[in-house]
Amino acid sequence: MIPKFKRLPKHIGIIPDGNRRWAVNQGLSKESGYNRGIDPGFALYELCLELGIPEVTFYGFTVDNTKRPAIQKRAFQKACVDAVNILANRDASLLVIGNHESPQFPEELLPYTTRKTFGGDRIKINFLVNYGWKWDLSHAMTNKAKETCLLHEEIASKDISRIDLIIRWGGRRRLSGFLPVQSIYADFYVVEDLWPDFQAKHFLDALSWYQNQDITLGG
Amino acid sequence: MIPKFKRLPKHIGIIPDGNRRWAVNQGLSKESGYNRGIDPGFALYELCLELGIPEVTFYGFTVDNTKRPAIQKRAFQKACVDAVNILANRDASLLVIGNHESPQFPEELLPYTTRKTFGGDRIKINFLVNYGWKWDLSHAMTNKAKETCLLHEEIASKDISRIDLIIRWGGRRRLSGFLPVQSIYADFYVVEDLWPDFQAKHFLDALSWYQNQDITLGG
Fold first, then answer.
1. Which end of chain B is more exposed for a tag (fewer CB within 10 A), N or C?
2. What's the whole-model pTM score?
């Protein structure tokens, strides 16, 4: 069923966009789309386990996203909490990264702001929750090692490794603040379909494309 | 000749990739490709003037690129110097941004590390020369405003504004360290053709695509 790949990414970033557009297309209210993003996330998680992908980062929601109407905000906050609760019954080493000193951060997720392992430690899952690129990078400025250029050691998301491949659903070709430091050399693949319409084929097509990219890191 | 666009980007980032691959395809040595990247840059500059695009940033070379063989390094350094010398006879307000305290930075370009205006001030042209994303961001860490989150005010490239559209030639779908802060919400368009094979159509197709993108900035 799953093809053999000659080279797989070690770390994949997932931008699961299009939940609201999907809901509107179905004649539903915008906020009802977020809940439909959970099952696709676990379908993708299962594929990653099967392929042996060591690390996956999901874009939950950002500081900028919290400017949306309150009913939408509550819906995407709840979807993140529900996803973590389901994951707690699976195998994963989970880290939730975001500004957890803000009231926009769901308090149910506070225990996961240091990495917690559930079941077998088969895969690292990082979840960006109330994440802000400014929050992430400016964290470096308040830390000690100002004399060094080892910025990556000091940013708030320092426990998240370099990303090889970013897959964005929903057709938009932008990073929208997704981990700017880790994404420096990431290959960027866009799926036109909306995230609630996730199919395994989207993901496998992205991996097929990725295996043929020439990785140079600027050299 | 040039179509009417309903919405144009205010600031375009250009990643002119594929010079070496182009040279190899022509049976030439890799380094001879860089010189062929200058004319396309001026063709694009003329289109931007005609359309009234206010700001364009070109990716010259990066700190990572300087790890390449010396003959290639000298060739891309020279191409950057030649491009600036030609621009000095046109209309532009030029800023060269990069680590100019390094010996990899061509000294001929030192006068342009503060913005200089040539002819009429019709367009801002920024040129990244010996640019490094780490150098850029870590600059923020050595500055004063550590208590604020106004990181953008403090990075080395603070005089370069937010980018609306990034166009990369040469088929690769990655930013390769191109201005991570300014590129947060940039739409990313990839041209399969190599940069020395630049055609006006590539650029106009990117603008046609861009005018139909929904700009939300996370809201």
1. N
2. 0.92
Q: B137 to chain A: nearest residue by CA?
A: A151
- Considering only alpha carbons, which residue of chain B is nearest residue A147? B142
Burial of B16 (0-12, 13-18, 19+ CB in 10 A): buried
Size of interface A-B (CB pairs under 8 A): 113
Count of structural domains within chain A: 1
Please give the pLDDT value at position A141: 56
Tell me the chain A residues in contact with residue B184 when contact means C-beta distances shorter than 8 Å: 133, 175-177, 180
Sort out which chain B residues have CB atoms less than 8 A from A146's CB and list them: 141-142
Q: What is the distance of C-alpha A156 from the center of its chain?
A: 16
> Nearest CA of chain A to the CA of B202: how many Å?
17
Handedness of CA A58, A62, A68, A69 (dihedral sign): positive
Question: How far lies A118's CA from each of A11, A37, A84, A91, B112, in Å?
Answer: 19, 22, 11, 5, 55
Residue B4 resides in a domain = no
Instruction: ipTM value, please give it.
Output: 0.89
Helix ranges restricted to H, A88-186: 133-141
Q: Select from B68, B142, B177 the Cβ nearest to the Cβ of A184.
A: B177
Asked if B60 contacts B127 with a C-beta cutoff of 8 angstroms, the reply is: yes
Is there a contact between A151 and B134 if contact means CB atoms under 8 Å apart? yes
Q: What is the pLDDT of residue A151?
A: 44
User: Phi first, then psi: what are they for A167, rounded to 5°?
Assistant: -115, 125
Residue A217 lies in a domain: no
Contacts of A141 in chain B (CB under 8 A): 140-141, 145-146, 151, 154
Q: Do A135 and B149 touch (CB under 8 A)?
A: yes
How close A77 comes to chain B (CA, Å)? 15
How confident is the model over B182-219, as pLDDT tens digits? Answer: 999 999 999 999 999 999 999 999 999 999 998 777 77
By CA distance, what is B147's nearest residue in A? Answer: A142
Q: What is the mean pLDDT of residues B152-171?
A: 87
Domain region containing A194: 11-210
Q: Is residue A215 part of a domain?
A: no
Q: How confident is the model at residue B140 (pLDDT cuts 50, 70, 90)?
A: low
B46-96 pLDDT per residue, tens: 999 999 999 999 999 999 999 999 999 999 999 999 999 999 889 999 999
Beta bridge partner(s), residue A187: A165
Q: What is the CATH number of the domain that holds A83?
A: 3.40.1180.10
